[in-house]
Structures are given as structure tokens and as C-alpha cells.
Amino acid sequence: MNAIVQQVNPNKALWEKGDFTRIAVSMRESGEALVRTLGVERGLKVLDLGCGDGTTALPAARLGAEVLGVDIARNLVEAGNRRARLEGLGNLRFQEGDASELTDLKDQSFDLVVSIFGAMFAPKPFDVAQAMVRVTRPGGRIVMGNWIPGDPTLVAQILRISAAYTPPPPPGFISPMTWGIESHVIERFARAGVPQQNVSFMRDTYWFRFSGTASHLVDEFRRYYGPTMNAFEAAEKDGRGQDLRNELEALFETQNTSGRKDVTSIPATFLRVTVARG
Ligand SMILES: C[S@@+](CC[C@H](N)C(=O)[O-])C[C@H]1O[C@@H](n2cnc3c(N)ncnc32)[C@H](O)[C@@H]1O
Questions:
Q1: What is the mean pLDDT of the chain?
Q2: Using CA of residue 181, residue 182, residue 187, residue 188, what is the dihedral sign?
Q3: Does pTM top 0.85 for this prediction?
Q4: CB of 99 closer than 6 A to ligand 1?
């Protein structure tokens, strides 16, 4: 009898682990603010790639756009569709898909492709750039939000600290953080046929707002955010779980700007990339 071997896609497994919706609730305000800057209007065809449970997809749909959210994680797609149903947003739909392929999506079918801390986590970054350009109509735009390696603010620091507790990635692995380096972004879109002058950059800020202590927010990351869960698993195997916890707690506490103990408000800098599809 032939055994059926199920291949695990580590990228999918990472994001289906835990429950990213628990982290996403602290990011809603910035998601809405960002969408308000995108010139979204009724009927605009929007693809939100690596959309999670819709932090940016829902605000775009509330403005009347026709929105498709694509994400690799089945649980997040289900959560997004639940949120869309609850709000009665018939112009918003979520489906499973991989940003490196987008095989289900037709060429030139979107006016705006948005990917906020989403497509940056897909493997094969050149394929991702190619896929995003392919599905954008001529004259359309791509807007990405990417965390920046070495940045002193929250998310880059969580990922830096976590990396110090996890085994090195396999050979050939390209760090998602390279999407936060302008020269890499230019090279990836150039290979997809977009000239450098059509790619622009700015630094922007996302806020994590949480109604609890900084330490409680560390717990949320530990229990529900795939990359941090993996870091804790590896650290605990080495007997270093408490060290990781202490480092993250110190980070979250020093970055909390709320001036209060019971509420946490932390800014995180990101690279905002805008690509004009000529
Ligand atoms: C940090 S979360 C951001 C989610 C959402 N954009 C937001 O702002 O809340 C990263 C998202 O990218 C998704 N993702 C990771 N790799 C992906 C891939 N290859 N294709 C599509 N989505 C992917 C994850 O499942 C997750 O929802």
C-alpha cells in the first residue's frame, strides 16, 4: 500500500499556528488610518495580500471598494470572512492563496494591491514581486508595508531578539526583513519589469494599542504570534525561556509610550513602498 505523504508548508504552518487575530486587534487603528491615505473609493478593485483577518481589507471595503483578501493561513481567511459577514460587507471576500504564486488570480485584475506586513513573509521574494505586478492593471498601484531590519522599534526588535533564540534558518532562506531594505525592493520590482523611478519609499508608523500591561501584551505574543511561539519553544528546549521572556518584557516596557501601566501603546516604524505600475 502506498503511504500518502503530506508535505508541510512551513510558511503556512507558521501563520496557522496560534491565532494572529489576537495581535491584529491591537493594530486596527493604524490599519484604518493607513487605508484612509490610499485614495480608496467606491468600486476600486483592491487585492489585500497577506491580509490576515482584514485589518486593512475591512476599512477598504467600508469605503466601497471591491476587496479580495488573500492569505496563506486558513484560520485567518475564515476569521476574515466571519468579520465581513458580521458587518454585512458583500463587497469583501477572503480566500486562501500564496503570495509567491497567486495562480488563481487573473493578470491585470486589480487597481490597487495592498500588502501590509503580509507578502514580505512569503518565500521567494522575486516571485512575489512578479505576482503582484502581474495582477495589477497598467496605471494601478502596489502599496507594501515592510518591517525594517535593524530598526530600533518594536517589531524589528521582537524579530531580532527571537532570532537569537532560534536555530539558524536553512541554507538559501531569504529573510523577510530584506523587504525593508530599499535596494532589495528596487531589485525585485526591476526584475518584474518596474523601473526604479516608479518605486518610492517613505518611513511610516504603526501603533500597537492594547488595553493591558506591556507584560500582558508579551503574553499575547507568546501564546498567539507564530514567530514568537516558535522562539519560546526553541528557547525552552535550551532552558532559556525565562531569558527570552525578560528580554521581550524589557523591550515592551521601554517602548510603551502610554505613560500608564494598565494600557500599552507602542509605535513601530515601517518602510512604506509605493509602486506605480506603468
Ligand atoms: C504579520 S501578519 C499581517 C496580517 C495583515 N496584513 C495585518 O496587517 O493584520 C502576516 C500575514 O501574512 C500572511 N502570509 C505569510 N506568508 C504568506 C504567503 N506566502 N502568502 C500569503 N499570505 C502570507 C500570514 O498568514 C499573515 O496573515
A1: 96
A2: positive
A3: yes
A4: yes
